[in-house]
Amino acid sequence: MSLLAADLPDPGLAAFGQDPWWVVLLKAVLIFVVLVVLTLFNIWFERRVVARMQHRVGPNVHGPFGLLQSLADGVKLALKEDIIPKAADKVVFILAPVIAVVPAFVTWAVIPLGPEVNFFGHRTPLQLTDMPVAVLFMLAIASIGIYGIVLGGWSSGSTYSLLGGLRSSAQMISYEVAMGLALVAVFLYAGSMSTSEIVAAQDRLWFGLILAPSFVIYVISMIGETNRAPFDLPEAEGELVGGFHTEYSSLKFALFFLAEYINLATVSAIATTLFLGGWAAPWGVENVWEGANSGYWPLLWFFGKVFIFIFLFVWLRGSLPRMRYDQFMALGWKILIPVALAWTVAVATIRVISLEAENGINRTYLVAAIAVLLVLTVGLMFVPERKDDERDAAEAGDEPHDAFAGGFPVPPMPAGGARRGAAEPLSFTHAPGGRTTVTASAEENHE
Q: PROSITE patterns from the entry (predicted)?
């Protein structure tokens, strides 16, 4: 039994670019409004879920169940004093939040929210536009948003903000490589980079099941890409005060906050589109309800899947501590990227064999070779690192090295004095008048 109905409507790319200007404008405005409202809800949802996990109440005063708390916080930020540091580059300092938030909205232009519907008397897809390289467009726009964080940290004139911006650029380079490799397998199976065609290609089976390693790698990478816990190193308040936005206040800080939560919904929507069948109904629903994939009902399935990922973000934030920076980078370069490379080669080989049945290659041997490749790749990731030569020499000796031998180690004196151990005995000399002289000398003690 298929996870999705096999007869899903597939209008293709020809259905786009035919809408009148007022339909395009109305679609864009609706996407903007939905994302703003979704951000307010996500902030409330995160605070309520984390409060439950920590046995607290959470927001419950403003509005029913505290739903208006996020709106009250937004008004408070808008009324706060806007401060620009003297050492800041004012132009870049003001533009950085805008650069961060605009790409977050633009990415939703190519995300399919549903099939063709009757939109105020006009037949149009529930998607603003589509293109043959829509997924690459989303990755490119998401990369531009990272520059807002980098430039915001650099332009603040603060060391803490600069370090947060540098960390963000390192995260972007590291985890976008793994993310891009995870999506290659999707392109190979779908035969297209168009988002609407990728959704149509999952009419029988979701790619999240048949390409499970790619799905897991993408989920890990999207958490690192959005700077969310446990990968929120650019804004690690325990180390960098507030990270890249330390010097920001008022509406400019609110724009950074808005960009973070819209990106959270954006990567969730991309995961839904590429791995969970997009707007199509879950398995079995189409069999009992013929209209599940028609009209505006697919919006329910799409946002239901998106909220599953949003709950995952919140769950991780309330459960896991922040990683060390070296551990975070090692996870990306030493684990995710090698596994993604091996899996991409395996998927490409399987697709070639399945598409060319006349090649005469035994599939059993092929599968065995792929399994060996994956085992070797995973095994190489867990080979212990070679230690320093000095540590190797100490371990090769007959007796273990004791770093505290002779007392607690003391650094050399500024004037070039000899290195002493804190365990050297002290001599007390009492002089007339009540003055006492303290000296550290092993020779005097032995005498």
A: COMPLEX1_ND1_1 (PS00667), COMPLEX1_ND1_2 (PS00668)
Question: Which one-letter DSSP state was computed for residue 352?
Answer: H
Angle at 32 between CA 310 and CA 220, to 5 degrees: 25
Letter for the amino acid at 197?
E
Whether the CA torsion 304, 305, 306, 311 is positive or negative: it is positive
Helix 250-275 crosses helix 212-225 at what angle (to 10 degrees)? 180
**In terms of residues, how long is the chain?**
447
Per the CB < 8 A criterion, the answer to whether 275 and 207 are in contact is: yes
CA distance 284 to 380: 42
Report how far apart, in Å, the C-alpha atoms of 305 and of each of 308, 311, 340 are: 5, 10, 24
Whether the Cβ atoms of residue 71 and residue 36 lie closer than 8 Å to each other: no
* Most confident among 91-95, 323-327, 368-372, 405-409 (mean pLDDT): 91-95
CA nearest to 50, candidates 304, 317, 236: 317
Whole-number Å distance between alpha carbons of 149 and 447: 66
What is the pTM for the complete model shown?
Answer: 0.78
- The residue written with tokens 């003001």 in the block is 94
d(CA 243, CA 240): 5
Amino acid at 6: A
Q: Which of these, 111, 150, 315, 99, lies nearest to 228 by C-alpha position? A: 315
Residue 351 φ/ψ, nearest 5 degrees: -65, -40
With b for 16 or more beta-carbon neighbours within 10 A and e for fewer, the 127-137 pattern comes to: bbbbbeebbeb
Q: Alpha helices, DSSP H only, in 232-296?
A: 237-240, 250-275, 285-288
Instruction: Give the chain's radius of gyration (CA, Å).
Output: 29
Tens digits of per-residue pLDDT, 331-365? Answer: 888 889 999 998 888 888 888 777 765 455 555 65
Domain boundaries, the chain: 16-322, 324-385
